[in-house]
Amino acid sequence: MKVMNRVLGLSLLAALTHSPVWAQSQVDPFTAQPAADWTALFKRSSGWTGADGVYSIPLAGDERPGSGASQRTLVWFSDTFVGTVRPDGSRTATTMVNNTTAVIDGAMPDASSLSFQVRHKGSGWQSMVKPPDASQWFWPNDGVVVGSRVYTFALRMKSADTPPFAFATAGISLLSASALEAAPFSASYKQVDAPLFVPAVAGGAGESSFGQAVMLHTAAAGAPRADGYLYVFGTRSAEYVKRLLVARVKPEKIGSFAAYRFWDGKAWNADIRSAAAVTSGVSSEFSVHPLPDGRFMLTHMTDTLGKQVAVRYGDSPVGPWGKDVILWDCPEASLTPNTFVYGAKAHPHLSTPTELLVSYHVNTFDFAENFRAGGVEIYRPRFLKVPLR
């Protein structure tokens, strides 16, 4: 009976892994269209009124395109406005906190299935997660569910005299909480420092950090041609460009940093300083997911502060990676003379079998614009739907 149950279980797993939801994987240039229903979901007049980040984590651990319909999704945001929006679109009585979350029940852009979480203490709003050092803050990046816990790699940030962006990376932390809670991280959570950051070397390599994107390449996650690894992607900064780095670890070892291996251009190496760039011109935030034909798709914004959403195809998680396929010119880059766009990434499990859901951010170099008439149009996510064939 045990043997029969195991055979049936493996057959079911194989059926899920090769489900028709993986049938499409190709996109054509400039075919993206606005996903107006998803964008409208995040235009709000009270409470949570805007943020960037927008990392989505399927809480049942199923990463397959379309699987979000049968599970809940944790969404991480970075800097977030909390307050009120007037009828003219200006913000008032507003506080900015460094991170918040939301939970989506299912995969439909329905306000009734979306709940935002902002920590409140005493008379004020607070970030959902905080480092022990009060002078620092977290900007959560991508994450994954392993067993019954949800893990998130978070940038640990500090202030810096580096205009126009007055901040710098202090390190990386791995945050974790129960994936079974109604709103993970709203109650108890754990945080540990992760040795996944290498500061810049004077006259040498720029800083390297990992966790901007993760890819769970396991049969349990529904990945086609799974190899059983969790891939943790990062970047190395250079002047006006970011280069893609890759690490991997067995999922059950996600908190055992000695088990991480970094691609050095030829092999997987235990030394993070050996990590070699596998492609260049990626953005600070991005996503990577597997395709049914054995390739991989990188979704990002062209360059660090480009204005086009693009994808690249890779033959493996470490490449070789092809050229950008441009999907969309972001009109919000010209919303005002000060606005810019960034942070494009795909959300496969919230997509449909024939359309890939992609998000990106809109921001401004003039912070005061967020509080003027129409300011609510600036600092909130936009969504696209990209036809797949």
TrEMBL record:
Domain (DUF4185): residue spans on this chain: 71-356
Q: Which Pfam families match?
A: DUF4185
Region forming the signal peptide: 1-23
UniProt keywords, alphabetically:
Signal
InterPro entries, per this entry?
DUF4185
Name of protein: DUF4185 domain-containing protein
